[in-house]
Amino acid sequence: MITASTTSHAIKLQLARWAEKTGTDLSFVNFQAHDFSQRGVMGTHAAQLVGMGHLHNFDGTDNLPALLEFNRKGSSVIATEHSIASSSTAFFKEILTEAHGGIEIDNLTAETQAYRH
Predict the structure, then answer these.
(1) Can you state the angle between helices 44-55 and 2-22, rounded to 10 degrees?
(2) How far apart are CA 6 and CA 2, in angstroms?
(3) pTM of the model
(4) 95 three-class SS
(5) How far does Cα 47 stand from its chain's mean position?
(6) Eight-class DSSP state of 59
(7) DSSP-derived 3-state class of residue 23
(8) CA 38 to CA 62: how far, in whole Å?
(9) Which residues 6+ apart lie within 8 Å of 8 measured at CB?
């Protein structure tokens, strides 16, 4: 937990520094680094430790074991795994359309199509 907390604190300091430089509201910083760590750790206990370290500094998390262990509320985001989102151009187009309030997106960029192939 100490390593995760120390790392996330250093990240938060950088985010705050850049928020100040760009005139961004500092209240956004608490949500700018989201915790998806449960996807890549070795079990529930590891997820709890890493997630609690993150929750010392940020409010955004999808790490339920950490929230339960830390006994607090967190905020989630609408997100999907990169492997799923990039596996289908149709799925990617649907997500982008929804993100832009129903605006139909006719053309994907050449970069996206090149990545798929």
Answers:
(1) 40
(2) 6
(3) 0.61
(4) helix
(5) 15
(6) S
(7) coil
(8) 8
(9) 33, 53, 54, 56, 57, 58
Q: What gap in Å lies between CA 26 and CA 37, rounded to an integer? A: 24
Give Cβ neighbours of residue 98 (< 8 Å, ≥ 6 apart).
none
User: Does residue 62 contact residue 34 with C-beta atoms inside 8 Å?
Assistant: yes
Question: 34 or 85: whose pLDDT is higher?
Answer: 34
Mean pLDDT of 18-28: 93
Q: Which of 68, 69, 50, 51 is nearest to 60 (CA)?
A: 51
Residue type (1 letter), 89? T
Contact 33, 18 (CB under 8 A): no
Residue with tokens 């993100």: 99
Residue carrying structure tokens 């997630």: 51
